[in-house]
Design goal:
Layout (H helix, E strand, L loop, with lengths): L11 H7 L3 E7 L3 H16 L2 E3 L8 E6 L4 H23 L5 E6 H6 L1 H6 L5 E3 L7 H8 L5 E3 L7 H4 L5 H7 L2 E5 L1 E2 L10 H4 L4 E2 L2 H13 L4 E5 L18 H9 L6 E5 L8 H9 L6 E3 L7 H6 L6 H14 L4 E8 L6 H14 L3 E6 L17 H24 L5 E9 L5 E5 L5 E5 L8 E9 L3 E6 L6
Parallel strand pairs: 1-2, 1-3, 3-4, 4-5, 5-6, 7-10, 10-11, 12-13, 13-14, 17-19
Antiparallel strand pairs: 8-9, 15-16, 15-18, 16-17, 18-19
Helix pairs in contact: 11-12, 15-16
Bound molecules: 5'-deoxyadenosine and iron/sulfur cluster.
The site of iron/sulfur cluster (SF4) has 14 residues, from α2 and α9.
Length: 470
């Protein structure tokens, strides 16, 4: 790969014609924000003339967009990099180069350490500076080990190229839109404030423009995402701050958008206006992902969550009063430092009270640089494992009960892709459940009413009962 990479004058077709087609693969780990960032990195690569590679073996550029949230996620990256180094060595023998980029939260947290552990890496770029990737790739052609983990003053989002019509169409009817990034809450266990930086909200106009473009390309559902999405306070065209409830209304008003979701929320930012939006905005899905982490006030205080169990349950009550069918989901951490058996029982009690539709539970993983990693009372692995199994069994029962209760109901399902079997299509219910139905391929990308006829632990089976609408 000898062609110099330019950003400003990139005209992919002309550039591709000049050399053999180069291919890029962006592999995403971790959260929804990383999936969004990976798509934007793929957009940058496309503008640089890279076609998408289906397999890593075909790629001239490999970007790992990494997650640092738990130790296991981080360590996975180094084993991936080991395999990629072998691939790079093999390709070199065949006279071909591969450029390796580590992006995302591991890049931010570990920086130069990545190059020390794996010198085959060409570029390390953090989540706040990946818009500079074209320049960094050019830099990597003249020196090895380029690092950019700054938190630049410029607005990353305004520097990213918009997704092309083809990319939007390829990604399907559901799209993530980053509206807010970073976190000022500093929960004691969490790396996000360090890897993603301070809380920033994108302006309303830029977000609406992005959604309009997505809708014109066939997107019917947008998930507004942010590490602390309900703390959103972006400015409108008159410079006035708009809350998430206002942004949801603006997104729902975009022509073509049928459904709006948002994640992830913190209990302390769950204002009355957002709860009221669940009652008033028809396109807002009846689904609330509201992580509680623990059911013990003592543990919540030690986690610096700044909310109590009673406060959390009050939000759940108010959300259900606004929208009786709202589905709740949460994240839980078990084995946080100092968590006693009684604290853990309190978490089980809380889950039993709420009846979640679906949830995620994790063993506490000490993260370097976070206060909890230094705390006394670290819980042993065996206790963590048994608590996790017990909580997961309860959450699993709740998921199945929620799915069973769907039988006989009729939902609007947005179909996203063909199923594994011929003649089958797969979509999601308003409550995020996967729904399989018999139907023509033409319903992919459309919404149709579906009667649920059977329920499994992870999906529902339905029968389409209305014409599809686009
Ligand atoms: N250990 C275990 N789980 C964690 N999470 C965040 N940090 C940690 C950690 N150090 C979980 C929280 C959060 C979810 C995204 O990941 O439950 O809500
Ligand atoms: Fe992982 Fe959190 Fe970073 Fe997302 S924000 S990539 S979950 S560490």
């Amino acid at each position: 790969m000898t062609e110099s990479i330019t950003f400003d004058d990139a005209r992919p077709s002309a550039r591709v014609a000049r050399s053999e087609v180069r291919r890029a693969l962006v592999k995403s780990f971790g959260c929804q924000m990383n999936i969004y960032d990976s798509q934007r990195i793929a957009d940058l690569a496309a503008l640089e003339g890279y076609a998408e590679a289906a397999r890593v073996e075909d790629a001239d550029l490999v970007v790992l967009n990494t997650c640092h949230i738990r130790e296991r996620a981080s360590e996975k990256i180094f084993s991936e990099l080991g395999k990629l180094r072998e691939l790079k060595d093999e390709r070199r023998k065949a006279g071909k180069g591969v450029t390796l980029v580590v992006a995302g939260c591991v890049a931010q947290a570990e920086g130069a350490e990545i190059l020390r552990r794996q010198p085959a890496v060409d570029v390390v770029v953090g989540p706040q500076s990946y818009h500079r990737l074209p320049y960094l790739l050019r830099e990597a052609q003249v020196r090895s080990g380029v690092i950019d983990t700054e938190f630049p003053a410029e607005d990353k989002f305004s520097r990213l190229p918009p997704s092309s019509r083809e990319a939007i169409a390829r990604r399907g009817a559901v799209a993530f839109v980053a509206v807010q990034e970073g976190c000022d809450k500093f929960c004691s266990f969490c790396v996000v404030p360090y890897t993603r930086g301070a809380e920033v909200s994108r302006p309303v106009g830029a977000i609406v423009q992005e959604i309009e473009r997505l809708a014109a390309g066939g997107v019917r559902e947008v998930m507004l995402i942010g590490q602390n999405v309900n703390a959103y306070h972006g400015l409108d065209g008159d410079g006035r701050p708009v809350r998430l409830s206002g942004l949801i209304r603006a997104a729902a008003a975009v022509h073509g958008i049928r459904r709006v979701r948002y994640a992830t929320s913190h209990p302390n930012d769950m204002g009355d206006d957002l709860i009221a939006a669940h009652r008033d905005v028809e396109a807002l899905a009846p689904y609330l992902h509201l992580p509680v982490q623990s059911g013990s006030d003592r543990v919540l205080a030690s986690m610096n969550r700044r909310h109590t169990v009673a406060g959390y349950l009050d939000i759940v009550t108010r959300a259900r009063a606004a929208r009786s069918d709202i589905a709740l989901s949460s994240d839980f951490i078990v084995g946080y430092p100092g968590e006693s058996d009684a604290d853990f029982r309190a978490t089980l009690d809380l889950a039993a009270k709420v009846h979640y539709a679906s949830s995620y539970a994790f063993k506490y993983s000490p993260r370097p640089g976070t206060p909890a990693a230094e705390m006394e009372g670290q819980v042993g692995e065996a206790v963590k494992a048994s608590r996790l199994a017990e909580l997961q069994a309860l959450l699993e029962q709740q998921r199945q009960a929620f799915n069973q209760a769907s039988i006989g109901r009729r939902f609007d399902v947005l179909f996203e892709k063909p199923g594994r079997r011929d003649g089958q299509v797969i979509g999601r219910s308003p409550y995020m459940q996967s729904v399989f139905a018999e139907g023509p391929l033409a319903v992919v990308g459309a919404m149709a009413e579906v009667e649920i006829v059977a329920a499994g632990p992870y999906s529902l089976q339905g029968r389409i009962v209305s014409p599809a609408s686009y």
